[in-house]
């Protein structure tokens, strides 16, 4: 990973002050550029949230206003740390790259220490999910070596976790689990939650955990 930085000052900093889940960090991996999730990403986010291939076991949004609310919820919660992901493209200057300005995915803290990711089906199979999760992990521990400051003190500061879908969606859950394993996560436990599609039902999810540097018990 290279070039972890803050992407703005002034007005951007004022916005962050008013939205506890907003931030100004950016970073790069070999093929990807990561920048803060913004309200004007609503069309890109709705393309994910309305696609049953992406959200195979959670609620599918039918209205763009739902996707806008999804973004606002993340920008207004101090336990979120979300990044939009764009491909890096070669420029006319030899040996240099620039972000494509086209959002292909989202990665980051969904309720820290829990993290998650989503990508457009059109870029599946390229290894981007693994690259993005690995990149976020490195960014996170380099930026917050003691854990994110908004996480309550204690063991939660020492690890990141992720959740994969129910056994009924075995193929998709296995693909997500494979990404997590490549990034160093280990199976931790099962977790029962209310089904977001059928609230009267419950689903069994798998929880994966990755200890931070120096924290493995």
End-to-end span in angstroms? 26 Å
Which class of secondary structure composition applies to the elements? alpha+beta
Across the major sheet, the strand order is 1-2-3-4-5-6
Mean pLDDT: 85
Strand content: 25-35%
Number of helical stretches of at least 4 residues: 5
Number of β-strand runs:
9
Rg over CA atoms? 17 Å
Helix content: 25-40%
- Oligomerization category of the chains in this entry: single chain
Silhouette: globular
H/E element sequence? EHEEHHEEEHEHEE
Describe the main β-sheet briefly. Answer: 6 strands, antiparallel
Low-confidence stretches: 6-11
Per-chain topology:
Layout: E1 2-6, H1 11-18, E2 25-28, E3 32-36, H2 42-49, H3 64-75, E4 81-90, E5 97-111, E6 114-119, H4 128-143, E7 159-164, H5 170-182, E8 186-194, E9 202-211
Antiparallel strand pairs: 1-2, 2-3, 3-4, 4-5, 5-6, 7-9, 8-9
What does this structure look like?
The structure is a single chain. This protein is α+β, with helices and mostly antiparallel strands and about 220 residues long. Helix content is about 25%, strand content about 30%. It has five helices and nine strands, in the order βαββααβββαβαββ. The strands form two sheets. Strands 1-2-3-4-5-6 form a six-stranded antiparallel beta sheet. Helix 2 crosses helix 3.
Brief write-up:
The protein has 217 residues and is an alpha+beta fold.
